[in-house]
Amino acid sequence: MTQKHLSKLSGISTSMISAIELGERHPTVPVLDALARALQVKVTDLYSRKF
């Protein structure tokens, strides 16, 4: 999935997604929740899997 597609599904900006992936930003709980819902996974899965 591209950052653009994830952004569209989650409502999180592509710049924020990129910064999280690069370790430049730490996501808040609401951001994690939005990303998890968009990816159809649990929030805890975002910490236990390598994407």
Number of domains: 1
How far is the first residue's CA from the last residue's CA? 10 Å
Largest sheet: none
What characteristic shape results from the CA principal axes? globular
Count of discrete alpha- or pi-helical segments spanning 4 or more residues: 4
User: What do the pLDDT scores average to?
Assistant: 93
Helical content class: 55-70%
Based on secondary structure, the structural category is mainly alpha
Could you list the spans in which at least 5 consecutive residues all have pLDDT below 50? none
DSSP, total strands:
0
Topology (SSEs and partners):
Elements: H1 3-10, H2 14-21, H3 29-39, H4 43-48
Helix pairs in contact: 1-3
Task: Provide a short characterization of the protein structure.
This protein is mainly α. It has helices at 3-10, 14-21, 29-39, 43-48. It is globular, with a radius of gyration of 10 Å.
Describe the protein:
With 51 residues, this protein is mainly α. The chain has one domain. The protein has 4 helices and no strands. The protein has helices spanning 3-10, 14-21, 29-39, 43-48. α1 packs across α3 (29-39). The longest helix is centred in the middle third of the chain and has 11 residues, at 29-39. The N and C termini lie close together (10 Å). The relative contact order is 0.16.
Quickly list its features.
51 residues, mainly alpha, 4 helices, 65% helix
